[in-house]
Design goal:
It is found in: Secreted. May play a role in fertility regulation. It comes from Propithecus coquereli. Keywords: Developmental protein, Differentiation, Secreted, Signal, Spermatogenesis. The protein is built from 28 helices and 23 strands. The chain is globular. Among the domains are: 164 residues, Glutaredoxin (3-Layer(aba) Sandwich), CATH 3.40.30.10; 242 residues, no CATH class; 86 residues, Glutaredoxin (3-Layer(aba) Sandwich), CATH 3.40.30. The longest helix has 19 residues. By secondary structure, the protein is an alpha+beta fold. A five-stranded mixed sheet has the order 2-4-3-6-7, with helices on both faces. Strands 21-20-22-23 form a four-stranded mixed sheet, with helices on both faces. A hairpin with a 2-residue loop joins strand 22 and strand 23. The termini are far apart.
Amino acid sequence: MLGARAWLGRGLVLCRAGLGLAASRRYGHRTWPCRSAQGSSSRDKDRSASVNSSGPMPAGGKGSRPSCPPSAPQRSPNRLINEKSPYLLQHAYNPVDWYPWGQEAFDKARKENKPIFLSVGYSTCHWCHMMEEESFQNEEIGRLLSEDFVSVKVDREERPDVDKVYMTFVQATSSGGGWPMNVWLTPSLQPFVGGTYFPPEDGLTRVGFRTVLLRIREQWKQNKNTLLENSQRVTTTLLARSEISTGDRQLPPSAATMNSRCFQQLDEGYDEEYGGFAEAPKFPTPVILNFLFSYWLSHRLTQDGSRAQQMALHTLKMMANGGIRDHVGQGFHRYSTDRQWHVPHFEKMLYDQAQLAVVYSQAFQISGEEFYSDVAKGILQYVSRSLTHRSGGFYCAEDADSPPERGMHPREGAFYVWTVKEVQQLLPEAVPGATEPLTSGQLLMKHYGLTEAGNISPTQDPKGELQGQNVLTVRYSLELTAARFGLDAEAVRTLLNAGLEKLFQARKHRPKPHLDNKMVAAWNGLMVSGYAVTGAVLGLDKLVSCATNGAKFLKRHMFDVASGRLMRTCYTGSGGTVEHSNPPCWGFLEDYAFVVRGLLDLYEASQESAWLEWALRLQDTQDRLFWDSEGGGYFCSEAELGAGLPLRLKDDQDGAEPSANSVSAHNLLRLHGFTGHKDWMDKCVCLLTAFSERMRRVPVALPEMVRTLSAHQQTLKQIVICGDRQAKDTKALVQCVHSMYIPNKVLILADGDPSSFMSRQLPFLSTLRRLEDRATAYVCENQACSLPITEPCELRKLLHQ
């Protein structure tokens, strides 16, 4: 297709972007690129690691990661030193003439007639670190990049539009993608070669980065016109492939058909033993679990419905018992490198914590098992302790790598793994009442699968950095561990929790992983949802307060009142102040979609209408900036912000995060329920229609959108509570609603004031009366409301129907 393969030389399959990914596979999981798909304080005491019966089990900040080796002489900084992004600052002392993404770099490329080398990553990406240390710190490679190319470094978390455009090229011309993503562009920003991680030098089966640079330099000089023609051809093909439009379709596809096909595709790929939907690497995929719960609700009297529930609950249980969960400090790592959820890729991302808190809360609603609610609370206590700014915002991520000891080179997982000797020294106390001599350390090691030799396979540790180390993973239920030593299960729970607390306190003395203290509006929106939904489900006001603080942070620091626009990022400055780049980085579609979702969830959790009002204003701005009035759906970026990029995309895949169009479709549906504004329902239908072909072709790629399609073609419930927000009887009815899994609803508080915001939006609210001056609930569908209900048990019965 590309016609560019031959010129790179025999054996170099760069133009299909396969070299970085395919060559990585031969070294095991730790050479996969990072996949597509902070100081001690009193808050550290709130570790909240808890051990729960899970049923039968199968047998930093800036400068925290040095850019140069300690022994190297200090170099002069390049222009990235003036940036705010932690990722760009990690490259500020490379011997490379780096440019940030911008007109200065593009003008230089055109003026000097040089190709652009674009390198995209993020600050907590393990293989981004590796390539920086191996290649970008190399003096010879630095000279090549500076003399023969215009080298541009991009933080994908700052510029998701740039990342998506060129990742589309890499994925279309190879079998996958990941980070670091390295793409060579013409001066007009059209891609012609792409890949992921490259080693610095040639190996037996792969070409090194230096050789790649030399060959591209040679071909640019000798065959530039051919490269430009091929690049234009590729761009034209990608434009055609990426077009999403309503075309001549008037309505979206059948929800029943899409639902069934999506479920069948998931069922076929389901791992019966360990849960999840792949062999390895294995990702949490909250969007899939959300779909399965929704599918269960609408099919709960069928075999497929029961199957969907079992698949989701089993996956969540296996994840929570596996090493992908940090049993000592809580929270979840990025993904598992194996089928068993045992050895993770150790970085911790904010967006994973946010979505998993919601899905574990939903699992509790559905099952009633406190195991799931405890996991959700643990996630949020980790976020409060380690990823929360003092003003209420939320940081992006913690790194996978950290030094085993101060002054040593960072290693992946060093902060999280344990040797048997360490555990024995920390937990030497004898356990009373056991049927054999037993220490607290031995009990913990048995339950969590620690061994003298370490429980990490050499195939998962090709560099030998984790020899003798262990990742905690629950190997037995509490009951089995207790039975093994003749102990009471509750006594074992207490002993294990005490042991985990001692490990947590000891771990605080280790060098901590780098903290990316950048704050992204989209992920802060997801985190507002995480706190709001979990707080509402569990009836914990302190969690709803955290959601409120997050929303206040967004409005105070990431919202421009004059233009009504969101900013994409802000940064932690000296002394914990909040700083912005100049000019500011304006928000993308996902920032608006995820923040609007967070505000809608916060309104339902707090019943404070100010958050709903702001959500409506943000949705208006989103419609103005991103809506495609010709083809339907939303573009990922503003037209002006993406000027010069070869593609303007509409994200069409629910992955590690839901696509912004999927979330927007559901937001529009909910906003129509809150306001009755027909325009938003029309936009929802138009959006779903525009994505019809994508859903028909591979519904499993858009489970969140299929879920919204189902909600649209069913009937949205408007659950109205008439009462005073602070009154006990009002709270009882509200908590009854929150305790139930009802995804296709809006929850509205009517306080009886005809001039209130909600009454102005939905005039029919003024016709609903309290019964005998008590808080009263109405369930309304299709512009008809139920009889008044004052007892939570009666409301529960009605909602169960």
